[in-house]
Fold:
Amino acid sequence: MENSKPLISVKNLSKSYEGHKVLGKISVDIEEGDLVSIIGPSGCGKSTFLRCLNCLEIIDSGSVVIDKIALERKSANEPISDDFHDKAHQLRQHVGMVFQAFNLFPHKTLLQNVMLGPLVVKKEKPDIVEEKARHLLRKVGLSHFAERYPESVSGGQRQRAAIARALAMNPKVMLYDEPTSSIDPEMVDEVLQVMRDLDKEGMTQLIVTHEMKFARDASDYIIYMEHGEFIEISDEDEIFIAPKDERTRRFLRNFM
Amino acid sequence: MIKKILLLGGVFTASLFGAMDASTLYWASDAESDAPYIFHDINDYEKIIGFEVEIVDSIAQKIGKKTVFVQNDWDSIIAGLQRGHLYDIAINGIDVTPDKQRFVNFSIPYYITYYQLVVRADNKSIHSLADCAGKSVGTLKCSNAYQYLEEVGNVDIRDYTSEVNGFSDLKIGRIDAVLFEAPIDLFYAEPDTSLKKTGGPIGKIQYAIAVRKDDKLLLSQINRSLYTMQHNGELRKILERWKLWNPYTAAYLNDYSTVVIEPDGYNDFLNCFYKNISWAERFERYFGAWPFLLDAAWMTMKLSFVSMIFAISLGFFIAIIRVYGPMPIQLLSMLYIEIVRGTPLLIQMLFIFYGLPLIGVEFSPFVAGILALGINYSAYEAENYRAGLLSVHRGQMEAARALGMTHNQALRYVIIPQAIRFVIPPVTNDFISLLKDSSLVSVITIVELTKAYQQLTTNHYDYFGMGILVAAVYLLLGLPFVRFSRWAEKRLTYRYMRHKALEKKKIIF
Ligand SMILES: Nc1ncnc2c1ncn2[C@@H]1O[C@H](COP(=O)(O)OP(=O)(O)OP(=O)(O)O)[C@@H](O)[C@H]1O
Ligand SMILES: [Mg+2]
Structure:
């Protein structure tokens, strides 16, 4: 690799809620184009980690660098400066987020959902935005549903629309927090397929998931998390066949 | 002698800027007072008549001024005079008492009268104040009569704001006697065969015109005019026209002569008031009331709409900072909501209109009314919006922020549009209740629908017909707003439910 600088670089990231430690000194580098799955038991801090990456939660200490935008905090007592807020705001525009509950805007059609970000945040021209939005909906297989409201489409379709909505901002990184957990099993694959396609296009993606098969097939590598720490970062095959850590083995045994 | 009533027209816009016309005598009274003081002419609702109207006209003529009538509730008539910039004098059966004299000056009296007990015609037990012990007796609140009854001890005293209600309760046996001022008895009890006076005169009441303390020139002009009227027979003529001449006044004026003057005013009143009228005449009467009611309805509508818009905007702002503002501001807005919601609207209104001028903040009646209603309702609207904002799932804010929107953008494009749908029904509710609460502005000199109704009913007791008429007007005022909000609610809901509904239909067929 000639470009050795990682797209995402996390150092000593810590986060607590009311004295209860959720993330403890996490450090990780992620290269551009990687598809990384994060697995681990419930409550271990997977969502919190993702939310710290795009500043939906503010880190207590450590640093997060994504695409050269660096956020750093010495301790939880350090007041949050305007500069920090500005950077967080910039960073969010480069990071797409997809939620377990879709969180589509119910008062807007799928097309309007996809268009809203570029219109409001980037103040782009409506006709250009619409063209791009229709293109994205086609890409996720929803061109016939553009004028529908979220209420009236299936879970799989909603999640694909949510992905298109995030993509409309041209993010450098996509974060997914259990994107298929609220979807009927027969619809899961259509969502995963969108992520596979994005991977082929070279999108950097972090996915918190319980879809072990998908994690194994599609990921470049897998992170196993427990009690707010990264226990093991392994190759997708390695971790399933021969986990390095005893805790990983115990966790995976329940899934196999 | 007949005044055209000005509803909030020139007077109030003029008085708003403190620019009351110096060549005009602005006089205040409550046209809800019964005959013979000041009341609406049954034959022409646009006119107010009564012996006090005639006295004012005569005085104004003597000092070379036009007159303009300003309506105010009897309860706040002295407060309004003291406040200034509303009217120059108050004349409304106001008796001279030391506690009132502390705040305003009084002219020389123009009439002397007394309290009089009235009972049902078949009553044999009450002949004097002392006989009232153990009985229930009605009187006007805040009057000296109240004190007399208290001194008897063991009297069940009932407060009335209008004598008319006292008499009707007496007739149906809710109370045993009433103690009102003699002129009222003359017009409402004596002609009624089911009632009778009992015992002699009680106390002594001197009616005089109230003038601001600093208005020395006006006071002396009024006194000079009254003095002239007392001595050239003009005052006696007015009093005789209303059959009010009595020994007390005769003694006061030292006029024991006998003259014959027809009590025209009194006779006209009796003819109208105690006549059984046909339905045709009744409808004609209602028809005549229309212009007056329409003016009042217009006032109610203006007040309600402007107040509501004010309440909605202010409430919206407060809800936003209550939910999303920094902690100290959240607390402040919570405090605002609790204080405004927790104190009576009437007190807020009196405070704004009569209280604030003491610290130099003065509003016209209309503006004060809007402020009081708007501020009061803003607290309720804020709570509505708060509930609406909180009912939007927090994932919506996160999704918007994750797209890179600022907090304000997320509110504007994502949260508020969804919250609005939730708040339409409660806001509609509040508008209807504001429409009715707007009647409280009668304490700050505004005549709106309820006040108009009260003024129109006091002179012929037609609570039934007038009641239906006014209720209908209220409904008509509220209806367009209700229709509009139903429509808006439907529109906002259907816009994203419609597809679902259609889909369901497909399954059925
Ligand atoms: N806003 C919050 N306030 C307090 N505690 C929180 C908050 N959010 C998360 N936590 C706690 O932090 C810990 C990690 O939560 P997180 O949601 O990151 O776990 P997770 O790995 O995503 O779990 P799951 O698989 O159930 O989604 C949990 O113990 C949770 O109770
Ligand atoms: Mg989670």
